[in-house]
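Researcher: Re-running this chain for the archive, since the previous output was lost when a drive failed. Same request as before.
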Amino acid sequence: MATNNSTHSKIANLEDGSPLAHWYCRLLIVINSIKSFGLQQSLTLITMAIGSLGLSATMFLGQGALDGLWVDLDRLMGNRVQAYADAGPGDILLKKRPNFYFTASDLKAVQEKLPNSRYVVPMITGRGQIALKEARIIMSVDGITKELESEPAYMPVIGTSFSASARRGFELECLITVASAQKLNADINQKISIDNYSCTVVGIIPNPPEADERFKSRVVIPYFWAQLFWGSPDNIGSIMVSWNSPQEMEQTVNTLRRVLDDERARGAYHLSSSQFAIKKRKNIVSNFMVFGAIQSIFSIIVASIGIVNVMLANVVRRSKEFAVRIAMGAYTKDIAIIVISESFLLGLLGAGIGVLLAIIMAPIVSHYISAVIPEASNLKPIISIKGIFAPIIVCGISGLIAGIIPALRACKVDVLAVLRAE
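Model: Regenerated structure tokens:
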């Protein structure tokens, strides 16, 4: 009785017949109905919560996996992509140029279109006979500019990088990988021969990450000397492009493709294979997110069907209540709004419970995945706004749609027949 008096006093404070009073009364009816949920409604709520949990957890873990992917990208690619010259499909480039090499004009065009990149520089890769005492081995030789010397792949673990005089071409210095040092039995400050040119080893650098065994043995020299050995005015080698943050990768690569298509010919180049490995991994993560989202939405659809059944049973059970309200002057639209609101709130409540559980369980699940799958050791869930609101929106709309059929059924209550039966 105290509750009813409190309710009546609240309603009395509102202007009689005002829209606010109508909506307030509808809200109280809906809340009281939800408070009286039975076992069937509770099971439907749990099913909706499971669907919401799955959708949120998929988005949290998927976003974490994508962020981990950018970490892998930094490790594999060093925040850069390398473009290699090619004649294109059907040697299309040779119809407009005497050769397929990258030229200084190609490099300038890329630099102009990517002014905010970390760097856009040339790089020449050749092959030469590397000799030290009795050892003679054919190896790849990379010619790099000063900008590339700051990359982890070219930073010496022993010794130093090139001197200013070596960069300007006054003396020939080189860096060798750990694998090269082992094969040649070489150390810093020793002289090795590159195609009969004497070269001083000034530093030893790490082996290329995830490279085949035969490609781990490499020599690195200043770009000036590499162009002298293997380049020409019409051949600057390959083009290296680096971005400032991993999120800029896709835009930078797309711009690079567009510029090279315009300057040369469509497909008259190819990009470093690491870029495609990253793209493949990104597709795997995206497919995981899509698969998880589909499963979760299926669970939400099942819960929506449960809401329809629950609300239809609820309408039959409350037919007397609805008949009395209509007899006392309530409009059928008021009854429909009450039923749809209950269905809508049922969906929202399930979504809220599921999102809360996802926030609690996502770190536990990611820890378990990291323990079971070594490749996912860096997986950490990202609690994102999208992961929170997407389930709420999906479940809310599902609940809203699920309430339409029961609402139409409630509007068709035969007032006279119900009251006569009572």
